[in-house]
UniProtKB/TrEMBL annotation:
Transmembrane region(s): none
One MF annotation (Gene Ontology) recorded for this entry: ATP binding
Gene3D superfamilies: P-loop containing nucleotide triphosphate hydrolases
Keyword Secreted found: no
Family note: Belongs to the ABC transporter superfamily.
Record's protein name: ABC transporter ATP-binding protein
Keyword Disulfide bond: no
ABC transporter domain mapped to chain residues: 19-246
InterPro entries associated with the record: AAA+_ATPase, ABC_transporter-like_ATP-bd, ABC_transporter-like_CS, ABC_transporter_ATP-bind, P-loop_NTPase
Amino acid sequence: MHAPTGSVDAGAGLRRPAIDFRDASVRFGDFTAMGPVNLTVERGEFLVIVGPSGCGKSTLLNLVAGTLQPFTGETIFNGAPVEGLNPAVGYITQKNYCLPWLTVEGNVRLPLEFRRFPKAQVASLAASALERVGLRGFEKAYPRQLSGGMLQRVMIARTLVYEPDIYLMDEPFGSLDALLRTKMHDEILHLWKDTDATFVFVTHDLAEAVTLADRVVVMSGRPGQVKLTLDIDLPRPRDVVDIQSNPRFGGYIKTLWEALDLN
Ligand SMILES: Nc1ncnc2c1ncn2[C@@H]1O[C@H](COP(=O)(O)OP(=O)(O)OP(=O)(O)O)[C@@H](O)[C@H]1O
Ligand SMILES: [Mg+2]
């Protein structure tokens, strides 16, 4: 990442996993919301998490972001426990947090301004992030003038602009129609290919999970624990439409569906 703070030692750390949940559980009062979870996420991996509503998927992401602390165990990030907000994380939630009074460009510049990047660098990084998500020409538009997919792309640009080590994505495309989702999948696959970053992506959509993932984790009901991890051995680079006609695609969905056991 090119952030001036929060960067991680490059040489020694290369073989360390990106994230290591060790017996991590979370409580709210007397109520165990999640865990214990034991799970290792490798660097550069695209990990997708599925599981029943309320099992603790967002809670798991919050541990990595440092917005929550575990009740038991720990979350190791790049070799050290997460304590406080984790600056190496780019977090995209299903909610639209674009600031309505700022332009598209203003929204994308924000994380760089928070991090006190030099002005000239802010302008060029914001321009290149908007280019990458196909929003060139919309720099001066306001969020209310954009479609749902374009807003979602602003959120992605606002995250990739500071090149996080990890992208946490919590049902980012849940509100989009099927065509736009397919387009966003294509964009995410491109983004993944062009970076060394690690992705942890939460969804309820099994086809989305298999399309994007190197590995899918199925969580059990609350308090969610890891029930199954499934390697998705489908070729990369992936084409969103082609991948779904791969003969193995349907088998993966069936395995995940059976593991979810929602009946
Ligand atoms: N801040 C909080 N205070 C109290 N309880 C909470 C809090 N955040 C989450 N919970 C509870 O913890 C459990 C796990 O929540 P979480 O949001 O992680 O579930 P989830 O798997 O992301 O669900 P969904 O698929 O519906 O988004 C839920 O029962 C939820 O009500
Ligand atoms: Mg959630």
